[in-house]
């Protein structure tokens, strides 16, 4: 049923009969400057409608936020307790969803089209490994920032616990990296209070000038203990200085390099992604190229029947398409609900549950959590497989951990 109506009109919204719905998706319309405010206004009006229906059960509202600043705000704050009596709130963001698809799920499906994305840690980074992950993001667009933030939540490995030099590195390259860096450091200021930052700029002579920015608040033993480092490079990625930098990164033996092209103009992203230094393709380093409407051209370029059939663009992958972004499966939410249930049960009983309760019980525990703590559990769930891989574990169904492995995972988690 298609209803021609306004989503900021209470009279029109009543015609949707949302109290009888199973689930509500609040998407909004494209090219609205106040998109996120309108979605919240619409949500408020629907909550008011639900208040008028006696014994109306809680409904799940999945709400799209166009801007990451709004989305990030809902990751650290909560809805009013009055609203939470009537709705289960699930905010999502297009760019964050794609970051999860590439870095957590590792694949994209749309009809007959299937794309499998390589892992950032293409080999298990165990406690005695000398390797580290390096994610290079060209373009500090909304997509680029979402990839960087998602990676920072995930890239924690046990070798850092033994040798603090083995940090995961996330590098942003952008023409206005200085302005974008200030905005980024302001948005995630608590991270940069304890972490130093590397800033590079291409000079007029074509040289790279590097500056180390110290933590903004803490010094000495209270700072620089994190295992993920950010770099910001100001300059055009096609400039000789930055091309040479990428060439050197590709030659690093102990670096697991991945390059993501996240420019706002898809043809420019395509050109950049297909004309990187030759050794990037020769060494089969994954290159992710942001596309919007169709992945057909890149899918054709990277197609291969067998591993032996590899060619220059075999490891170039499209991502960021507008179609089929949001996944309707709830596997990660169920995993996060399980994490929360185990923590809550242990805090209440000082012992671990013998088995998980029914999904309805997990959901009840979950719905009592503030939204910020729900996100904390979700990010924990997203990282479980990556952390198990760092122990060399790939059989997730028959999991048996000894005390040394549990201790290692605890150190990585903290």
Summarize the structure.
The chain is built from 17 helices and 13 strands. The protein is of the alpha/beta class and 414 residues long.
Task: Explain how this protein is built.
The protein is α/β, with parallel strands linked by helices and 414 residues long. Helices cover 41% and strands 17% of the residues. It contains 17 helices and 13 strands. α2 links the parallel β1 and β2. α5 (94-105) crosses α6. It is globular and about 70 Å long. The mean pLDDT is 88.
SSE layout:
Elements: H1 10-14, E1 23-26, H2 35-51, E2 59-64, H3 68-76, H4 81-84, E3 87-92, H5 94-105, E4 107-110, E5 113-116, E6 132-138, H6 142-154, H7 159-162, E7 168-174, H8 177-187, H9 189-194, E8 197-202, E9 208-213, E10 228-234, H10 240-251, E11 255-261, H11 266-274, H12 278-282, E12 287-290, H13 296-301, E13 316-319, H14 331-349, H15 359-367, H16 371-389, H17 403-413
Parallel strand pairs: 1-2, 2-3, 6-7, 6-11, 7-10, 8-10, 11-12, 12-13
Antiparallel strand pairs: 4-5, 8-9
Secondary-structure element series: HEHEHHEHEEEHHEHHEEEHEHHEHEHHHH
> What is the makeup of the main sheet?
8 strands, mixed
Q: What is the structural class? A: alpha/beta
Oligomer classification: single chain
Report how far the terminal alpha carbons are from each other.
49 Å
Strand order of the largest sheet: 9-8-10-7-6-11-12-13
Q: Supply Rg.
A: 23 Å
Shape: globular
Regions with pLDDT < 50 over 5+ consecutive residues?
none
Overall mean pLDDT stands at: 88
Strand tally, please?
Answer: 13
